[in-house]
Amino acid sequence: MSDCLFCKIIAGDIPADKIYEDDDMVAFRDIAPQAPQHILIVPRKHIINLSDLSETEDALIGKMMRTAAKIAADESIGDGYRTIINNGAPAGQEVFHLHMHILGGAPLGPLVSK
Ligand code: AMP
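That is the input. Now the predicted structure with adenosine monophosphate docked in place:
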């Protein structure tokens, strides 16, 4: 989509610190890291969020999870990391192109502050 930030990063029209690419997805460092290691995995296909998925993307989502583990290993994050997908504005989604956060590199606090 022409006005999508992550589509522009995937296309190389906007710079990003890319650390992984394959035919289906791209991973790059978050511009405002919330942990020592904060990486985003983004499918090349413009999907808005989980609510926008269809059955044809089942394999893609599985591959995103497996790729998260591979990136955590490749980036020496170890076994202690968190994956997050914010779905919809009420959950904090700001970029409406599906993406998975990988957070790690230090002990992480509770998932939701009380
Ligand atoms: P979300 O709030 O789940 O939609 O996450 C969007 C994420 O994209 C945030 O963590 C932002 O810091 C990150 N972000 C926004 N613009 C960029 C950019 N140009 N390069 C890398 N990460 C970005």
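The mean pLDDT is 96.
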